[in-house]
Each structure stands twice: as C-alpha cells, then as structure tokens.
Write a structure and sequence with these properties.
7-stranded parallel sheet; globular; 16 strands; alpha/beta; 42% helix; homodimer; 4-stranded parallel sheet
Chain lengths: 413, 413
Amino acid sequence: MLDLELIGRTAKEMAAYTGRLGSSEKDAVLAACADALEARCEEILAANALDLAAADPAKAAFHDRLTLTQPRVAAMAQGLRKVARLDDPAGETLYMRTMPNGLQVGERRVPLGVVAIIYEARPNVTADSFGLCFKAGNSSILRGGSEALRSNTAIVAVLQDVLEQYGHPREAVQLITDTSREAARGLMTLRRYVDVLIPRGGADLINTVVANSTVPVIETGVGNCHIFVDESADLETAAQIIINAKTQRPSVCNACEKLLIHRGVAAEFLPRICAALAEKGVEVRGDASVCEAFPAAAAATQDDWPREYLGLVIGIKVAESFDDAVQHIRAYSSGHSEAILTRDYALAHRFTAEVDAAAVYVNASTRFTDGEEFGLGAEIGISTQKLHARGPMGLKALTTTKFVIFGNGQCRL
Amino acid sequence: MLDLELIGRTAKEMAAYTGRLGSSEKDAVLAACADALEARCEEILAANALDLAAADPAKAAFHDRLTLTQPRVAAMAQGLRKVARLDDPAGETLYMRTMPNGLQVGERRVPLGVVAIIYEARPNVTADSFGLCFKAGNSSILRGGSEALRSNTAIVAVLQDVLEQYGHPREAVQLITDTSREAARGLMTLRRYVDVLIPRGGADLINTVVANSTVPVIETGVGNCHIFVDESADLETAAQIIINAKTQRPSVCNACEKLLIHRGVAAEFLPRICAALAEKGVEVRGDASVCEAFPAAAAATQDDWPREYLGLVIGIKVAESFDDAVQHIRAYSSGHSEAILTRDYALAHRFTAEVDAAAVYVNASTRFTDGEEFGLGAEIGISTQKLHARGPMGLKALTTTKFVIFGNGQCRL
C-alpha cells in the first residue's frame, strides 16, 4: 500500500540532510554511482529486458526510448560524472548589505528542498534527475512511466546502495513504484512536502501535471519554433541554417517547425529552400504563395500554424513585413526559440526585444537552445514558462534563495 | 457579460506595448497618476463612501481596510511617486558570453508580461499593484474584492485617464468588474494569456487560488514566525526583541507568533518575559513548563503550534536544546521568518543554515521582513514559496529573463 504521506515526510527530512552535505561529499557519491551503474550494468539490462518483453514492440519510438544497452548505461554514468564536475550552485551568498540601522541583510543561494520529477518510460531520466537534484542539495522523489518500472527500480537500487555505502540515507532518492494514475495525482497535491514538481515528457504529461498540481510546477517544453528570413538576409547562410534547424534532429523541441519568408525575397528564396527541404525528405505545407512557388507543397491549414510536428514536416508562410512576421510569431509561438535571419542591425535588435520567447536568435539555428550549448553544463529541461526559470535549466534552477539577516539587537521602530 | 477571453487577449497585446516603453515614459505616467489621484480625491472618496454605505459596519477591521480618507489617497499617490523613483528592473543584460563556436549567448531581464492580481477589499492595493506592474513593464489585470468595487473603479478610471493623456492605451491596466466567483475562477485558468497570478490577502484567498489556478501562482504569505532564545542569549536584548516582534504590530505576517526558550535559561527568563508580554496585553499559551513558571498562562494545545494568531496571543515552549528548537521550527514553520537570539557564533551560523525559511535572523526582530527594510524599495508581497521569488518581492520579482543569442550563421553539428 502506497503511503505518499510517508514518502513526502521522509523526503522533507532527507532534504534537511542533503542540503547540509558539502560539495566534495556529494561529488564522491555521484562518481561512485557512475562506477556502480557500469559495474552493475548486467543487472540493469536484465531488468530492462523484462520491461522490454512486456512492452508493445509495434511502438518503435517508444520501444527505442525504453531500451537500455551497455553504451546507454555508460552514457548515464558519464552524465553523473559530468554533473559531479560542475560547480555546486548552493551556498553562495549573492550579496550582503549593511542597512542604515546596522542590520546586515543578504541573500544566500540554497537548495530547493524536495524536488519531484514525473516522467515517461525513459530509464535514463532516472539517473540523470537524481544526479542533478542531489548535486544541488535536494532530495528527490521520482515517478517514472509504468513500462520502465523494472529498469527504474534496478537503477535506483544501485544509487541507493551507493548512498548507503557512503554513510548517507538511502531515501535521499525515492522511487514511487506504484505507477497508478492515483499515485501520480497524489504526488501532484503533496504540497506540504514537495517544493517543486517538474514534468519531463510530452505535451499530454505536462498538461496533466499543470491542470492537477497544487505543488508549484516548472513547465518544460513544447517548441513551435519559427525562423523568419528577412529580405536583407544572406540567403546562402539562411538556407544552411534552415536545413540545420529543421533536419539535424527533427524530433526535438528546439527544431524549427515554421518558416516565415519576407515577401521581398520570396520569389528568389522560396523555390530554392522548398526544394532543398524536400530533398532532405521534409514535407512542405505552405500558404497560397508557397504552393504557387513550389507546387509540390501541400496547403497549410489553420491547424498547422500552432502545431509542433516533431518530425520531417515544416509550415512555410510569406510575411508581408517584419511586423507581419512578429505578429504571426506572437500569435502562434510556444515561447521556446525564435530566430531572425537578417543583415539589418535595427531589425536584429527589434526582433530580440519584441519577440517574447525563452530564446531569441539572430542568424543562428534554433537547435542551440540547450543547457550544454548555452554553457550551463547539464540541464534538467527547457522551461517555457516565465516563472523561476526560463529556457534551458541548469543546476541553478534547482535552487532558491533565502534572506540571511545578522543583527545586534535591532527592533523595528 | 464578462468576456475574460477578450480581457486576456487585450492584456497580452498590452504587455507587448508596455514592455517596450522606456523608463522615463513609465515614470512620467506614474508621477502623473500620483498627481491625478490627489487632484481627483473627492471623486474617489465619493465612490468609497458608497462602498462603505453598503458594507457591514459591524466588521470593524474589514471596514477600516475598506475606508479611504484624504491622507490615505495621498499615501497611495506617494507610493506611486516612490515606485517612479526606483530603478527600472527590465532591460538589463545579466551577462553575455562568447561560446567556442562564436555564438554570443546572454541573458536579459525582461518584464513578465501579463500579471494578474486577485485581492480583497483594500482599495489601496489597486494603485499599488498597477504602479509596480507598470514600472516593471507589465500589463495588469486587477480583480479586487466586491465590497470595494466602486472605489476600485474610480481609482482605475483615474489611472486609465492618465495613460490616455500620455498617449498610451487605457487597457494597460484592466479592472475586472464582475466580482462573481466564476469570474475569479475564470481568471485563474486564463493560462493562455496570463503569465503569473499573485493573490494578495488572507490564507483563504491564497489557498483558493493555489487550489484552482492553472496559471503559475506566486504564493504570498502566512507567517507562523518563531524566536528561539538560546541559553547564551543576552536576556535584556532578548526581551526587547521579543516585545518588539510580538507587539509592535501584531496583525502582520512578520510578527512573532511562537517563542522557544532554551531549558538552560527557562527558570530565569520565562517568568520575566511572560510578565512583560502580559503587561503589553499579550495572552500567553504555554507548555507545562511555561504554565508552571507563569501560572497566568493558558495551556497550549496541539492546535496552537502551527497557528498564525495575527493578534495579541503568543505560544511559548521550552526547548531542551538547539536541535530540539530547530526540530520544532522545522515541524511548524510556515517558512516565513525565523530568529535565533544567541551569543554563540557556531549556533548563529548553524541556525541560518539549518532553518528553512524565506528569512532567517540572528539577534534581530522578525518584524524587519519587508521590502523596504531589506532595501528592495516597494514590495508586491512576501513570498513563502521557493519558486521564482522568496521573501519580500520587489520589482525584480515582476520580471523574467530571456536568452538572447547573436550568431553569424552557426549551425549545430
């Protein structure tokens, strides 16, 4: 019988413990976890084989995400080693000022406390989430997809064994093994104990969490990313960037989904870019001008503009002006990554100011929206909300601050 | 007929407009709003008189909060002038780095966008919320308590007239005049348009918003604040701080509600502090040791320890040790403000590290937890959650960041 109250209370106690650990203690655990995952790879793969045997082989993409192999376990281990090498975000005093009455008032960065992660059937997220939460001084509650339960259980056993070997409580990371919907819903309302809930997965999972959670949520996300080709753009560079942003890895959230082409270069650029995309296997859906310039294009419908394809499809529209393009982006953007390709200084700066998204680009591929590429080290997700963290979230997003006040008897007048 | 969809869509359009205003344009509007509120004071007081006539005069505290007077309107105006003088938080580039591939990646502070505020029958919150939101470049949707509707309508009319005089759209601030519960619930789920919802008011209001909102919420808050008197404390100073923290303004969230006294000084300090509190009209509720030392004390029940009295009542308990005190605080703290009074260097530092609250104090009154006292200028509330903002929230809490990336043709490998 699942006792969520106990899991929550334990996690809160654990957070008081993990929050006091020094960086070197935490890094030693992370490095040892990496070694142990590699050493116990067979055991993890055996558990994964049972998960795979129970899974529907017809769902190929799902099956692939669920599958662990020796190199994939090694990659999980490498991920933990990398997190161990990052700077510890907690403990820093951001500033301390002396107020007129002599009070010293400062802000200190501290762990969030209890971080819960709800995710789908991707066992690599288990080690990864633990690593990031633990490094920032948090205790974690993990709730992965039911289809990966045996794999997750094996991985968490390895992590907990290492914690114990190093003299720490096993419950610094807890896995919810009840994969019922009720258990997930219960976790979403464990507000007394859980400081933040991060859903990692597709739009359905995220929407369910946002709709049902009373715990504060960091929404990660959906990317309906646009590239606007201004009439002043270098068209050779533009073509390279667009092909990269659309085709280098089409299944991810920072891939380009929509292309807006300034009317002034449409006649020249449209046939060329459509042909180049088609050659890469991309299905083009366009407005009337696009279909005219590239007869192989399908007509885009109203459903296309807000849609995240996550595959080899692109929606293309001719924009009458810079303002028309910004207007379109404002209407349909998911607030993830938006780019302008231009040689115009003023438009480059107007675009970064007027487009409201986690990442706004000038003359580069949207595919760079990523914690590593932005220099944050590892990332726990890409936030498309505006509260707390926006864009790629590194370790700092797993911390909060507290005011620390040193006095010598001050009373308020 | 209330059209929340229209209000939301308008607010989003307005946010694009207000987000582009320069600081001097915004400050000019705020100063003119202050002047206009004073100039049209009669009109506002007339509207307020109608609200007051319809209100239940038996609820004295409620009546007082609803009441506007000429000095109170002048204070609202002064508040706006003060906000105008604060630094504009938006527009700052926090850093910009050149990555190995030549991409310049930076983070820029930008307005949140659309900020909605739900509050009770306190008309001063109307001008105050508009001022802070507008200064940070946000558009605002205000939904005040039904009992203050005429006052709020009059105040918002003044603000909107000034916006129009200065050539800005009136809808940069919108008041929801439908004061039904359905309208409030509708606002809480206007996730497509509203970037953050801040409830300003009592625990009931905040809990309703947290339970029903799909829009990200910043929870402001409840304060069950503790003071722990360590055995090494200077007892003379301790008495002054405790009297200040409990009685200087007992109805506010940073007032002291609970006192923990180390066993080592209980015999000496308990009778003295209880007598001093009683003399100030404070009702003492204590554990067995307290009742023994101060027979006028009532016995505290389990209900007392988590409770925020917001009045002249205090709960007192003898702690067997520092750890016992921290344990008690951890169990019952609302995460607002917690203080230790001590002369012990190590315990002072352990307390600030081990107690998990928005503000942790050594040797000072908890009453200082306030945006002004902490040097943030004006405040929009005191956050007791850990996400986004913790403790007093100044203008910076009304902003977010975006990544800005300048490239010259970079594609991802």
